[in-house]
Design brief:
Blueprint lengths: L7 E4 L1 H5 L9 H14 L3 E5 L5 H13 L4 E7 L2 H11 L5 E8 L2 H4 L6 H18 L3 E6 L6 H14 L3 E6 L6 H14 L7 E6 L6 H10 L4 E4 L13 H10 L15 H12 L20 H9 L19 E3 L5 H10 L6 H17 L3 E2 H10 L7 E9 L6 E9 L2 E9 L2 H12 L5 E9 L8 E9 L2 E9 L2 H22 L16
Parallel strand pairs: 1-2, 1-8, 2-3, 3-4, 4-5, 5-6, 6-7, 7-8
Antiparallel strand pairs: 9-10, 11-12, 12-13, 14-15, 15-16
The structure holds 3-methyl-2-oxobutanoic acid and zinc ion.
Length: 520
């Protein structure tokens, strides 16, 4: 890379993001997110951890074959088996990359029980092996920010000599601070022989809420690759959010003179999609992509906005893909209008899918006066549950003061309709009991959350349900103008995802079941 003002964007939503508890995505969802990342101009997509499971391997291989622009990268621990499997998955990409890592801090060295010299030797062998397979190799010293300075310099030099082309410096536990982050990269580049021949990357976790600031500081220190995820998805408090770094560089180019190749107008769409498929709703006040990021509630703000939008906005909603007017259609709108509106929102549906969405759009328009972009997006997304073992067919709930809530429900389970009636403490409890009576999944309800997609009492409610079973977490989401129906669909969706997760986490098959111990 010769343009020193260009910063590469490395998206790890499908690897580090998907590792976050409950954020399991189906195979089709991963392919879809990868296509969106590729289309928006992300430079490198970390598509998964190929050794972790057959599912991860298949996703990385297919994404590698499908990507048109981005480099496709897979993760591997520091052993030949992982690296070979990773290469097998990424090799078909136009531009493949192997990413291999090992924990270098004292705490992490203790896990595989390697001393400093043994670990140095392991790094030399594994990076050399990766480089013999692929000419684009990224190496990461996990927990770099808690690794002794001299040892960090030593292992970075070994990795460079062994052929690594990108050196990623992870702040694995979100421990660093901006001033230190900039300094660390700057000193590494100044100190380590050969540092000027590779690209330095920054990979920050958000445990202290400083991930984005730390990543941008690392760029000021000389890093030219930022690792990030959509919506900041990731383990614990998450990772640096792609939308934040990209927009910060765009809006504050005066003091941060670096640019990316990302088309920012695609941000809102992918953010919403990742929120849906991961089951992690975006908090309302989240920078850039939160529902309130461009909303102005107070009188003073609204008045200022009407006179000049720049009084309270440092970027235009259109810059991140938010259309200024989101009111779209009503019950008289036809199929062609729906098709064109969906296209504008980034959905190109096959004829049969469009027909399904159209039927449900008409049903919604009958119940709701105004149908907004957000409602349409929710409708399309709901339509995508194709391989589900459980499908909600009907639900009738009676409840009120002084009566026990009762739910009558029919669910299609593996192709056969099953009907029950169940009672509970309120309509949602009765509904969930009915689902359990049909399919006794044994999982524990960890979270039940309701939010409105749009305003008004006829708004669609989005419900998120998180289930936990023996360490596996699955989150389901759904939207409907009827909160109880949305709850039932979200619950069924969570069970379907749990079933996918059960398959994925058969012994030795789960990405979270792969221990970093085997890295040594
Ligand atoms: O946070 C981290 O250290 C990682 C590595 C695997 C790069 O995700
Ligand atoms: Zn990470």
């Amino acid at each position: 890379m010769t343009d020193n003002s260009r910063v590469l964007i490395f998206d790890t939503t499908l690897r580090d993001g998907e590792q976050s508890p409950g954020a399991t995505m189906t195979h089709e969802e991963k392919l879809e997110i990868a296509a969106m990342l590729d289309d928006m101009g992300v430079d490198i997509i970390e598509a998964g951890f190929p050794i972790a499971s057959e599912g991860d391997f298949r996703a990385v291989s297919e994404i590698a074959k499908m990507a048109q622009r981005a480099t496709i990268c897979g993760l591997s621990r520091a052993n030949f088996k992982d690296i070979d499997r990773c290469w097998e998955a990424v090799q078909h990409a136009r531009s493949p990359r192997i990413h291999t890592f090992i924990g270098t801090s004292p705490l992490h060295r203790a896990i595989p029980n390697l001393d400093m010299d043994q670990m140095a030797e392991r790094i030399h062998e594994t990076v050399t092996h990766a480089r013999n397979l692929c000419d684009n190799v990224q190496w990461s010293p996990m927990d770099a920010t808690r690794t002794e300075w001299d040892y960090l310099c030593r292992v970075v030099e070994i990795a460079i000599k062994a052929g690594a082309t990108t050196i990623n410096i992870p702040d694995t536990v979100g421990y660093t601070a901006p001033v230190e982050s900039a300094d660390l990269i700057r000193r590494l580049i100044e100190t380590v022989p050969g540092a000027d021949e590779v690209i330095f990357a920054t990979h920050c976790h958000n445990d202290l809420g400083m991930a984005t600031a730390n990543s941008l500081a690392a760029v000021a220190g000389g890093a030219r690759q930022i690792e990030c995820t959509i919506n900041g998805l990731g383990e614990r408090a998450g990772n640096t959010a792609l939308e934040e770094v990209v927009m910060a560089l765009k809006v504050r180019g005066d003091i941060m003179p670096w640019h990316t190749g990302v088309d920012t107008r695609k941000i809102m769409n992918i953010s919403r999609r990742v929120a849906t498929v991961s089951g992690f709703p975006v908090q309302f006040n989240k920078a850039i992509v939160g529902k309130n990021a461009f909303a102005h509630e107070s009188g003073i703000h609204q008045d200022g906005m009407l006179k000049n939008a720049e009084t309270f906005e440092i970027m235009r909603p259109e810059d991140v893909g938010l259309t200024a007017t989101s009111l779209v259609m009503g019950k008289h709108s036809g199929r062609a209008a729906l098709r064109s509106k969906l296209k504008e929102l980034g959905f190109e549906l096959a004829e049969n899918q469009l027909n399904d969405v159209f039927v449900r759009f008409k049903e919604l328009a009958d119940r709701k006066k105004e149908v907004y972009d957000e409602d349409l997006v929710a409708l399309v997304r709901q339509n995508e549950a194709v391989e589900d073992r459980l499908k909600l067919k009907s639900l009738r709930v009676s409840c009120g003061m002084g009566v026990k809530a009762e739910a009558e429900m029919t669910i299609e389970l593996d192709g056969t309709d099953q009907s029950v009636s169940a009672t509970g403490d309120g309509p949602v409890d009765a509904t969930f009991n009915a689902v359990k009576a049909i399919f006794d999944h044994g999982a524990r309800l960890q979270l039940y959350q309701v939010s409105a997609v749009t305003e008004g009492t006829d708004a669609q409610a989005t419900v998120s349900v998180r289930l936990e079973e023996a360490g596996r977490i699955a989150t389901g989401q759904s939207a409907d103008t009827d909160t109880v129906v949305a709850s039932a669909k979200a619950y069924v969706n969570a069970i379907n995802r749990l079933l996918v997760r059960r398959e994925k986490s058969a012994p030795g098959a789960d990405v979270k079941g792969v221990s970093y111990k085997d890295a040594g």
